[in-house]
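Good morning C.,

I know you're traveling, so I'll keep this short. The sequence:
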Amino acid sequence: MSAVAVAAATVDGVAEESFALEELLLSRAYLYTLFHKLLGAAPDAPALDALLGRETAEVAGAYAEDDATMRGFGRFLQGLAAREDRAALLDEARDEHVRLFVGPGPLPAFSWESPYRTHEPSLFQESTLAVRAAYRAHGLEPKRLARVPDDHAALLCAFMARRSGAALAALRAGDANGLAAELRDEEAFAAAHLTSWLDAFAKAARRSRTAVLYPQLIEALAAFARVDAVFLAEAAYWAEGLAAEGAVGAPGVRRGSVEARALEAAREALAALEALRPYGIEDYELVPARLCAGTR
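The tokens, ready to paste straight into the viewer:
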């Protein structure tokens, strides 16, 4: 094979790998956004429809091969989607959300990180401030700064969804160095503030008097975070190799191709999910730090 042919094959291989990586980055952004919406607010009909829709089934299915819990979550969602009493299901899920995250009465599980690290139930501990520093390093703060814990699961998921968007931007720009740095940063954050406590959160959530949706959802988040941590390490290694070779990793799909249509459909599904506004989600959103009143 000539040098030109070898170079062309290498470019084709990089383009194919870049396309697969973009698909996965979109999928993880979708799941983190979904977890953010459902953990940060009581579910409404559009949020429940998104959870039980085709897009979520396809994205969850992409992770089912790598994790038994994600396979079980996929089957669980199929069962919920088959229920004919969607309105009754929504009422049950709302009631469960209130019991788990709002009260009255003792909560069966804390939905923020620090109590699982220190075994103290108080808010705004050292790990909370470490999360706040990570947000600020990327120009972000909770919309309700100092009123909700920065290390709440919903905010952590919102942050990871945003970071996945940053990785997507670097990939599309062909910035292998920037992509590698972004993925390593996300890998470190996930190790410090997701996989370190979500399993314990899921175990505690099983103390709920009901298991309509949220105990299973939190178990799926914990499983997804573990799988995602492995993905981040592998994707960062790939990007570092690309950077070392001086290669460009921007996706090279042809307009109108099957691959291009698949990416566009994934982007549209993510945008539709991001646009959902279940009641109360404004309490668990990240905004640019300079726009936060009373920045500390």
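Safe travels,
E.
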